[in-house]
Amino acid sequence: MQTIWKGAVSFGLVNVPVKMYTATHDNDIPLRMIHRKHNEPIHYSRTCPKCEQEVAWEDIVKGYEYEEGHYVTFDKEELDELASETSREIRILDFVDLAEIDPIYYQRTYYLSPEETGAHAYRLLVEALKSTKKIGIANVTIRQKSSLAAVRVVGDVLSLVTMFYAEEIRDRKEIPNLPEAEKVDRRELDMARMLIDQLTGSFEPEKYKDEYRERLMEAIEDKIEGKEVKVAPEVKVTNVLDLMDALQASLKQLQPSDHTDKSASSSAGGAKKPEKRRKPHSKRTGA
């Protein structure tokens, strides 16, 4: 696993030297843009519209358009200096309860591991956060971008979650077509609560699958083998006008069937197991 950042977690006068690693990875299947006629990948070039020539990376700077057609520009060294990334510090400002933070603020999660000289301080911070059930709210700069962040424990590992600042969260008043507050029908509310109770369980992330990815991998394998691509069956949406009918139908779907022929099941040696779907391969292997 590649280190993407080195620095220290600081709170008060305590410094915990750490290395940062990405905690997640993109599992999308890479699809390139192909010219339909020649079956060749499309390439892009960095071209200046004024001289109509390709521009080398060393000749590119970043700029802010303060008036139409007028820019102030910054080279990499100037941006690095402004970002203060040389401080390499995850500075904890406050400790708060996890439940206080709305998930809308979260961006991306990273793991933090201790440097060789910081193992003791690292373990101390982990145990302190676990025992107090708190998380740290910190400032950090990663790759020239300053972020708010949450430092918390995942298992026995320190993690850092970059967060949006308050001004980056859009005001809910901007959302169109929100219904006005009104009194909810008591019977509908009771039915909705029953439906939620029926569907309530423990969070088991491994049981949720990326069905689109599975279908795409199967389609890729079918195309490689020259087979006809199977299209996912269309989901029929029933237009239920009465909300109570929809709630009752949903609850009925979740109830076990009362018409199961138990004698037939026992004589057949138990219920028939559903056939396993062919598991798609993430990569095609040669013969």
Automatic annotation (TrEMBL):
Residues 274-287 have a biased composition (Basic residues). Gene3D superfamilies: 2.40.290.10. Keywords: DNA damage, DNA recombination, DNA repair, DNA-binding. InterPro entries: DNA_bd_Ku70/Ku80, Prok_Ku, SPOC-like_C_dom_sf. Transmembrane segments: none annotated. Residues 52-180 form the Ku domain. CDD domains: KU_like (cd00789). GO terms for molecular function: double-stranded DNA binding. GO terms for biological process: DNA recombination; double-strand break repair via nonhomologous end joining. PANTHER family: NON-HOMOLOGOUS END JOINING PROTEIN KU. Homodimer. Interacts with LigD. Belongs to the prokaryotic Ku family. This is Non-homologous end joining protein Ku. It comes from Paenibacillus spiritus.
